[in-house]
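Q: Convert this sequence to structure tokens.
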Amino acid sequence: MGANTEGSSVHYQSEDEIDASKRQIIFTNIMDKGRLVKSATYKKVEVLMLCWAHSSDDMGTRGEVNDLKSVFESTFGYHAVIGQLDSTKPLQTQVNRIVAEFVDENNRPDTLLIVYYAGHGKPGGENSHLELIGQTSPNDPRDSDKKKRDRLVWDKTEDILREAGTDVLEIFDWQVFDLLQ
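A:
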């Protein structure tokens, strides 16, 4: 036998359930009236999916990116594009251009922008930057002096997203390695 609140057809098992239900109703009513947060209504969702070209993708993420693109498009009805990072070109300039074009083409108040990244990454510590990394070994093993890996600083690119006149959701689907110093 559960408690029954007056005028309710719901049977609660405890007073805690009744209190939780009342709090949920109050929260829902406040949110519906827009007192705390204006409800976000998007007419369109645009997705930019960043991944590395085959030569820099030692994780083999391209198949997963293609599968997720299909889910965004067929399941959710979003428009999704893939931005491939090619290590034969200057990476920071390249990713900045890809993201800037994406924002420029889709920057409307009624549009949600989603930026998805698949690959390696290195989170920044104190006074450090978030890095996106294409592979975990040097680009050219024959060149012992070449310590550069396919990497870019995401913080520089993120500044472009901060300037967007709409909401942006960033998703990092990455593997973090301590070896990526």
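Residues 89 and 95 are 10 Å apart (CA to CA).
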